[in-house]
Known about the structure:
Blueprint: H1 9-42, H2 44-61, H3 68-74
Helix pairs in contact: 1-2
Amino acid sequence: MMPYIQNDQDYLAEKFHLQDIHIVHASKIALLKIQSWKFAMRTPEVGNSYLMAAEDMVRDSLLTAVPYSFILSEEGYHLSEMEN
Length: 84
């Protein structure tokens, strides 16, 4: 008797195809944003407001300090000290 082996090939192919569609869609959106950014930088009035908005986004998101304890608790390292 042959042992039962689950074949997930169809599932994996569909999952890969869906991820590929999402990546292509995100790439198109990123390209459109880059093109609109370049177009806005050519016009001085709009370019200045874009620069200020971009500086605010970077300052608010990338340059904010996050304590180590928050990151560790979000990753689950403080849930059980015996399992760390």
